[in-house]
Amino acid sequence: MKNFRVLFFSVIAIVLLHSCNTNSKSAPRITADQFTKELDSLDHKLTDISKASIIPGFAAQILHGDELIYAKGFGFSDLANQHLFTPQTIHNLASISKTFIGVAIMLLVEEGKLALDDPINDFLPFEIWSPHFPETVITVRHLVSHTSSLNDNFDDGEKRASELKEPLGYKPDDIPESLAEDIHYWDGTFLSLEKYLEQAFTPNGKFYEKGNFSNFKPGEKSEYSNEGSNLAALIVEKVSGMPFSDFVNKQFFLALLSIGFEHFKVICSL
């Protein structure tokens, strides 16, 4: 089995290496004036990209150690109302998180803590069965391959509990129409990932309906499933013994900062 941790860091290495000046044998030192000119040049280039791109807006930041040396937004976060994009504009991560879910699962597979064909009920504090095919076991492989039959048919705004970690910049009744379908405020009690999935996919759950499961046998066909991915993230939590966000932070981001950049810095200076 491929070492997914090595693969993950290798991809990061390739990206960083392409940004290095491999023609020089050491990192050049520049004066403050040269540094300012470099930032001005970057600013002009990003402005040109913003004007030429179909992307409405984006932000760029540069850190040196713990110091923020550049931060600027380009374009608009709301085209209809001409709201400018800033470094504080909040992005929806959307399905980028699925990449980390998949790699997290494979790290646990490598460590022998689970197998792809293990039943999901081996790891959950509650049991999930398709009401259409109760005799068919749903496995971890089904979750990560989008063949679990768990679907996303129920109403996001009414049934998905969410918690905004940072201020969004809009009041609930003042969300731009262009963003309304992607932003939901939750005025009730915050539900954990575990409690939410239990409420949605166990028979006594508040949000449970047979229609939350597609009418095909788990493993029989592929159907994109956000809920299957959410359940895989919950399994990562249960197997690792820590919240999914902490697991990703420890296994990927902190690991990259602690060992990755030091190696890449040496490579870039060769």
According to CATH, the homologous superfamily of one domain is DD-peptidase/beta-lactamase superfamily
Secondary-structure content class: mainly alpha
Q: Please give the count of helices.
A: 8
Instruction: Report the oligomer.
Output: single chain
CATH architecture of one domain: 3-Layer(aba) Sandwich
What's the gyration radius in Å?
23 Å
Strand content: 5-15%
Shape by Cα distribution: globular
Helix-strand string: HHEEEHHHHHH
Percent of residues in helices comes to: 40-55%
The residue ranges in which pLDDT falls below 50 over 5 or more consecutive positions are 13-24, 156-167, 263-270
* Strands, total number: 3
The average pLDDT is 79
By CATH reckoning, the class of one domain would read: Alpha Beta
- Fill in the CATH topology of one domain: Beta-lactamase
The description of the largest β-sheet is:
3 strands, antiparallel
Strand order of the largest sheet: 1-2-3
General description of the model:
With 270 residues, the protein is mostly helical. The chain is built from eight helices and three strands; from the N terminus they run H-H-E-E-E-H-H-H-H-H-H. It has a domain at 94-256: Beta-lactamase (3-Layer(aba) Sandwich). It has helices spanning 4-18, 32-52, 96-110, 140-144, 156-159, 193-201, 226-240, 244-268; strands at 57-64, 67-78, 83-84. Helix 1 crosses helix 8 and helix 3 packs parallel to helix 7 (226-240). The chain starts with a helix and ends with a helix.
